[in-house]
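Support reply, case 0932

Customer input (verbatim):
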Amino acid sequence: MSQPLVHAAQVRKSYGSNEVLKGIDIDVEAGEVVCLLGPSGSGKTTFLRCINQLEDIQAGRIWVDGDLMGYRQKGARLHRLKDKEIAAQRREIGMVFQRFNLFPHMTAIDNVMEAPVKVQGRPRAEVRTQAQELLDKVGLADKAHAYP
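Our regenerated output:
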């Protein structure tokens, strides 16, 4: 069996004395759809931010596509990656949060294309084809040229 696309083991995150993530374990397979449900303040967004290293975790580990996020492990010790290395990891992960903040002056397809073109430096024609496929996949193909 292949490894999960996202694997989190015993992830803990606190803000002062408020422990928000209390030993989160989750495996998400490629192509699997997962919903995080819970009341406001229960840690859903914090966990997603931890996956992408937008928040530091106090304990546990998170792997995305086999890569340990934010750290390099040598023996039993973890060593924090440099900011440049973390940025390189982030370039391979796309996330949309509850406040998705689309660029209002750009169409839906242009918003989808922005990161692959600007961050990854990929050719617009290649990215446009993939963006259209992604919009189609989520039932928004007819909104490709609509503004938010």
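We compared this against your earlier run and they match. Two observations from our side: Helices lie at 44-51, 83-90, 108-118, 124-137. Residues 103 and 112 are 10 Å apart (CA to CA). Please reopen the case if you see a mismatch on your end.
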